[in-house]
């Protein structure tokens, strides 16, 4: 149980690069009143980096600086946070964590099409196969707010978005029946 005073929830959509996080987040934002927050975009716009990893060809995120930029928005609620990790967000500000998964053969092909370096593909494939992001979500948040969804095709994405929208409607009904702080079981 968690006390909630926001009018809208915060949803994290997470998973290995290439599973379809952004597609899910954009479609969900289009269908709801929630705002899509791409942490990769914010990190670039606000220069929230501690350096660059040449081997993986990726920036090293300054998590504190990034959180400073989004914390007030998270406190207000109404966000869909799109990022490949989830444990950095304060548990009290997150209402649902959706871990998107993908068949490893499809995921490999998606990363190849993005022209990721071999080392980056290998690391991300290992992460997906070993369920690293799913386990991080389960360790960081209450079990009842972590949901694992498969995303191998467009039909999966549509079903997943419908499922999240149903959850959103239930959340609103459970949390906005009064103007005072309420309690919810997610």
From TrEMBL:
Chemical reaction(s) catalysed: AMP + ATP = 2 ADP; ATP + H2O = ADP + phosphate + H(+)
Entry protein name: Adenylate kinase isoenzyme 6 homolog
InterPro entries: Adenyl_kinase_AK6, P-loop_NTPase
Any one GO biological process: rRNA processing
PANTHER family, A to Z: ADENYLATE KINASE ISOENZYME 6, POS9-ACTIVATING FACTOR FAP7-RELATED
Main location: cytoplasm
Region feature (NMPbind): 38-61
Keyword Kinase: yes
GO terms assigned for molecular function: AMP kinase activity; ATP binding; ATP hydrolysis activity
């Amino acid at each position: 149980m968690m006390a909630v005073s926001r009018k809208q929830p915060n949803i994290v959509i997470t998973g290995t690069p290439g599973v379809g996080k952004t597609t899910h987040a954009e479609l969900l934002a289009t269908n709801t009143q929630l705002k899509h927050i791409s942490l990769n975009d914010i990190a670039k716009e606000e220069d929230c980096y501690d350096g660059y990893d040449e081997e993986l060809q990726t920036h090293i995120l300054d998590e504190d600086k990034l959180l400073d930029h989004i914390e007030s928005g998270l406190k207000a609620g109404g966000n869909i946070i799109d990022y490949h990790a989830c444990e950095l967000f304060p548990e009290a500000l997150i209402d649902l964590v959706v871990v998107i998964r993908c068949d490893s053969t499809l995921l490999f092909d998606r990363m190849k099409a993005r022209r990721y370096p071999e080392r980056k593909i290998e690391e991300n494939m290992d992460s997906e196969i070993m369920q690293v992001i799913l386990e991080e979500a389960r360790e960081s948040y209450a079990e009842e707010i972590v949901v694992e969804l498969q995303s191998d095709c467009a039909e999966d994405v549509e079903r997943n978005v419908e499922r999240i929208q149903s959850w959103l409607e239930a959340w609103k009904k459970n949390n906005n029946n009064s103007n005072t702080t309420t309690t919810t079981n997610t």
